[in-house]
Write a structure and sequence with these properties.
This protein is of the alpha/beta class and 338 residues long. It folds into two domains: 2-63, 2-Layer Sandwich (Alpha-Beta Plaits); 83-337, TIM Barrel (Alpha-Beta Barrel), CATH 3.20.20.70. The chain has helices spanning 11-23, 50-55, 111-123, 148-161, 194-200, 217-229, 257-264, 273-277, 280-292, 319-337; strands spanning 2-5, 27-32, 37-42, 59-63, 83-85, 92-94, 100-104, 128-130, 165-169, 183-186, 207-210, 235-239, 269-271, 297-301. β12 (235-239), α7 and β13 form a beta-alpha-beta unit. α3 (111-123) packs parallel to α4, α5 (194-200) packs across α6 and α9 runs parallel beside α10 (319-337). The chain binds phosphoenolpyruvate (PEP) and manganese (II) ion.
Length: 338
């Protein structure tokens, strides 16, 4: 249930109301926007008399929330959340008008490879470096990633370039290894690994939550809710395409998820045109389209030698191709800012 307070309500009036609600075993989440204060009532609100509450002088309106997600819900938190990734001068903000491009190879393959790609994508405007160390592969016989060594190489690339690093976690037992990782990715296959989400909810570190292969928007939000319910509010959502029947593309990029999510949640929304299409030449138009549709950022696979990549070579851009995409995305950003 949500209670919108009238303009000009005093702190004492608000405190009195909150004390009464708490005495009814209702937890209250206060959100002070630029114009209005909104109270999110959490708990069993069935016993709250909605007419009584709406009748109070300081209450403008009361709504029952039908959506089961509360922490991620824009109704509770009208302003966009801005997630800060990384520390110090290289920290990057995502959301609320701050746009970020994450780029790098599907997998970290060697020190030379990750540092070469990191330098190249940085020169083209990427502000975060991606690289898989623990890889979720369909076949157990495929390259599984360099695992802990991959994380060390990513950390080295961060030292060299200053770019904060983004990489996927598949097992909560690995959390201690992710100390130097700035943004922990939960991949599509683990979007509903609820025990993993609960453990990540105990951290303060930002989490990049990718939409599951066949997940609805509501399911994506409920997974974000798992992380937030544990106390970690630093969640970035990622649309990366969903499974359909067509075989021309790896997945179908649901661009409409961007405006739909924008209305439902205050969390930042980024788009992965690489996994969405699976085809390098389709990455540029989809990156541009996602930017035009209002995404807060992009995550793009870039490899120094896509033909010989150990994972996802077909969808990986060369550094030159990435440079072109980054420029076009920047042009789109300028146009939509007007
Ligand atoms: C990846 O980012 O390399 C990846 C495996 O993504 P997804 O979970 O979206 O398939
Ligand atoms: Mn990949």
């Amino acid at each position: 249930m949500i209670a919108v307070l009238r303009n000009g309500v005093t702190e004492t009036q608000m405190e009195n109301l909150i004390t009464w609600l708490r005495s009814q075993n209702i937890d209250v989440h206060i959100s002070k926007g630029a114009y209005q204060t909104v109270l999110g009532l959490i708990g069993d609100t069935t016993k709250i008399d909605i007419d009584l509450l709406s009748g109070l002088d300081i209450v403008e309106s009361v709504m029952r929330v039908t959506e089961p997600f509360k922490s991620a819900n824009r109704k509770f938190h009208p302003d966009d959340t801005v997630v800060t990734v990384g520390k110090g001068e290289n920290a990057v903000k995502i959301g609320g008008g701050s746009f970020a491009i994450i780029a790098g190879p599907c997998s970290v393959e060697s020190k030379e490879q990750i540092i070469t790609v990191a330098k190249a994508v940085k020169a083209s405007g990427a502000t975060l470096l991606r690289g898989g160390a623990f890889k979720p592969r369909t076949s157990p016989y495929d390259f599984q990633g360099l695992r802990a060594e991959g994380l060390e190489l990513l950390t080295e690339a961060k030292k060299v370039t200053g770019l904060p690093i983004v990489t996927e976690i598949m097992n909560a037992d690995h959390i201690p290894l992710f100390e130097d990782v700035d943004l922990i990715q939960v991949g599509a296959r683990n979007m509903q690994n609820f025990e993993l989400l609960k453990e990540l909810g105990k951290l303060k570190k930002p989490i990049l939550l990718k939409r599951g292969l066949a997940a609805t928007i509501k399911e994506l939000l409920m997974s974000a809710e798992y992380i937030m319910a544990g106390g970690n509010e630093n969640v970035i959502l990622c649309e990366r395409g969903i499974r359909s029947y067509d075989t021309y593309t790896r997945n179908v990029l649901d661009l409409s998820a961007i405006p739909v999510l924008r209305g439902l949640t205050h969390l930042p929304i980024i788009v992965d045109p690489s996994h969405a299409t699976g085809v390098a030449r389709l990455v540029k138009p989809m990156a541009m389209a996602a930017t035009a549709a209002g995404a807060d950022g992009l995550i793009i696979e870039v490899h120094n030698d896509p033909k010989n990549a150990l994972c996802d070579g077909a969808q990986s851009l060369t550094p030159e191709q990435f440079d072109d995409v980054a420029k076009r995305v920047e042009e789109i950003r300028r146009i939509i800012a007007k």
